[in-house]
Amino acid sequence: MQFTGTAQLVEPTTAELELFGPGPHFVDGEVFDPVHLCIEPQFITVRSLSGSGNPERLCRHVR
């Protein structure tokens, strides 16, 4: 899925963070400091790959 819309930085609650599960402490040798975004989607694109080699595409305007 691909979402296009407006994003805002958010600070998740402890309960929300638990839903993500444990994150990595380091990425590429650097301390990992996650950033959480909330996206208000305006368009959603759904792609489904099938064995025919022709992916189906569905675009939906959700606003």
- Total count of strands: 5
Q: Specify the helix fraction band.
A: 10-25%
Subunit organisation of the chains: single chain
Put simply, the count of helices is: 1
Helix-and-strand structural type: mainly beta
- Low-pLDDT stretches are none
**Strand arrangement across the biggest beta sheet:** 1-4-5
Q: How many whole angstroms does the radius of gyration measure?
A: 17 Å
Number of domains: 1
Structural account:
The protein has one domain. A 3-stranded antiparallel sheet has the order 1-4-5, with no helix packed on it. Strands 2-3 form a two-stranded antiparallel sheet. The chain contains 1 helix and 5 strands; from the N terminus they run βαββββ. It is mostly beta strands. The model has no long low-confidence stretch (mean pLDDT 82).
